[in-house]
Amino acid sequence: MPTLQPTKPRAPQERSGVWKTHIPGRFRKITVHQLAMAWWLFKANHISRRQLRIFFAAHEMAERRSYMPKEGGRGARKPLYTLGELRRLIGGSTSAKSDAELRCDVRALGRLGLVQIESHAISFAVSIDQIRIDDVSGFWSMFDQIANRGRTVSMPRRTCRALAGGFQTSVMAMMIALMIRSLYWHRPGGKAGEGGYRIDGRTKCSWIAEVFGISRRSVTDARSKLIELGWITPLDTPQWMLNKFGQRFQINLETFGPSGESASPLAEISGESASPCLNSSASSFRRTIKTRRPGEEPSATPDPRSGFCKSGEKGSRKKNAAAAGATARRSPTLKNITDDDLRDTDRLLELHDQAVTRGLVNGSEAGRLDFLALAERARSQGGDPSRLFAWLITRRRFEFITIADEERASGRLREHRNGPREEFRPERATVRRASVEWSDDERLVMACIRVGKQTRRDPFSLAREARGWGRDHWNEIHAAVEQKDRDRWARDSA
C-alpha cells in the first residue's frame, strides 16, 4: 500500500489590486442603497441638482459631529446645524433671496423623507420605503442592476464635500458609480489578507450610461474630466478584459486637497457659487437633435444688426426697427416671448423669475443656468426661437440641452455678473511674469508642482528625491511661492 505524502502548506498568495491602509481626511459611511436612492430621485425629477448637493452636504455635516464627545461624556456639547454651514458647503451668495431658496430646498427634502435637517439633529432615509412617493418601481429596476448592492461605501469626506460643492450631472454620476464599483473595505483575514481599503475596480461605460440614465458621450466626457482633475487614474488593462469587464480605474483618495468647508475644485465665481456647473457642464442628450458647434451660426441668413433671424423671414427694415422699439419699451412676459427677450440676458432673467413663480423651473443657480441653456437651444434650432423656447420651458424639456448650450449660457451668466472679460495681452503678461523674482528653491517648487500634475505624483516626493528636502522645508518654500503669487495678482489687479 503506497504511503501518503504529507501535503505542503500553500504559500499565501499576494493579493491583487491597489490597497490603502487608511483614507486621508477620513470618510463617511453611506450605503449603496442610499447612493442609488438619491441619484434615482434626482433623475426622476423628484429632487433638483441643488437638493442632491444638499444631500451630500448633510452627510458631511453629520460626519463632523460624529467626532464630538458623546452625550454624557466629558466636554460633550449639543450639535448645532446652521444654514450658514450648509451654504458654505454648497456655495452661493448670502442674500435674503438665496437663504429663502435654500430653506425651501431643505424643507422639500424633509417632506420627501430623504434627509431631515433640524437645528440639533440630521436624519437620513436608509431605504426607498421611507420615501414619500407612491411609484418606486423605477428605483428597483435601477437598483437590481448594481452588484454587491447590500454593502456600505466608505466615501472620502473630501469627495463628499466636492459633490456638495457641485459638478456636472455626468461627473456626479461617474463619481458615484466608480465609488460603488471600485471602493471597498475588507476586514483583516480571509482573501483580503491584512485587510484595508481597495481603491481600484473595473467598470464599463455602457453600464454607467444604462444604470445612471446618462448618454455614452457624457460618460466619456466625465471620465476625461475626472482624469484631468486627478480623481481617477486609468490602469493597464488587457484588451480581452477591457471588452468583457471594462476599464480598470484607481480612485485617488488624496484629490481635492485637505479638509475644508468646500472641496469643489472648479469654482471660479468667488462668493457667488461653489458649483462648477456655472463654468462647464454636461447634460444627458438622448434625443436625435441636430446640434452645432459653439460659435457656429444658424443656416438662415442673419440680420446684420442682431446676428440672428428667422428662417424665411421677409419684411422691410422699418417694420423690424418699429417692432424692436416696441419690444424694448414693454416688460418681458412669459405669455408673449420675443426673440429680443432671448438675446437680452437681463430680460431673460426677468422671465426666469416669472417661471420660478409659476413653478416651471428651480430658482437656484443651476435653475438659472438651465433656463438660459434652453434659450440658447431655441436660438440655435428652428425658424421661430421664441415659440420653440416657450414650448421647451412649459414642458420642462431640459433633456434637450447640449454641452454647447450650457457653455454659452454659462458665459452669458459670467458676463452678466462680472462684465465682458478683459482682452488678453501677451506683452502685459510677459511684463508681469518678469517682475517677480524667484529664488532657486522657489523655482524648484514650481517645477515639482508642474511635473507632479503631469505625472500624477506628489510634488513633495519629487523635491525630496531631487534635493532631499524635509516636509517642513517644503512647506516653508511652498508658502513663500503662494504668497508671492498672491502679491503679484493683487498688484496687477490694482
Q: What would your notes on this structure say?
A:
The chain has 494 residues and is mainly alpha-helical. The protein is built from 20 helices and ten strands. The strands form four sheets. The protein has a three-stranded antiparallel β-sheet. A hairpin with a 4-residue loop joins strand 3 (115-117) and strand 4. It starts with 18 loop residues before the first strand and ends with a helix.
Distance between the termini: 98 Å
Dominant shape: globular
Helix segment tally: 20
Strand order of the largest sheet: 1-7-6
Rg on CA atoms, Å:
27 Å
Work out the helicity level: 40-55%
- Find the count of extended strands (DSSP E, 2+ residues): 10
Mean pLDDT comes to: 78
Listing every helix as H and every strand as E from the N terminus to the C terminus, the arrangement reads EEHHHHEEHEHHEEEHHEHEHHHHHHHHHH
Class from helix and strand fractions: mainly alpha
Write a brief structural summary:
The chain is mostly helical and 494 residues long.
List the helices and strands and how they pair.
Elements: E1 19-20, E2 27-31, H1 32-43, H2 49-65, H3 83-90, H4 96-112, E3 115-117, E4 122-124, H5 137-143, E5 152-156, H6 157-165, H7 169-182, E6 184-186, E7 196-198, E8 200-203, H8 205-212, H9 216-229, E9 232-234, H10 239-245, E10 247-251, H11 317-329, H12 339-343, H13 345-357, H14 365-380, H15 385-394, H16 403-418, H17 426-434, H18 440-455, H19 459-467, H20 471-493
Antiparallel strand pairs: 1-7, 2-5, 3-4, 6-7, 8-10, 9-10
Helix pairs in contact: 1-5, 2-3, 2-4, 2-6, 7-9, 8-9, 13-14, 14-15, 14-16, 18-19, 18-20
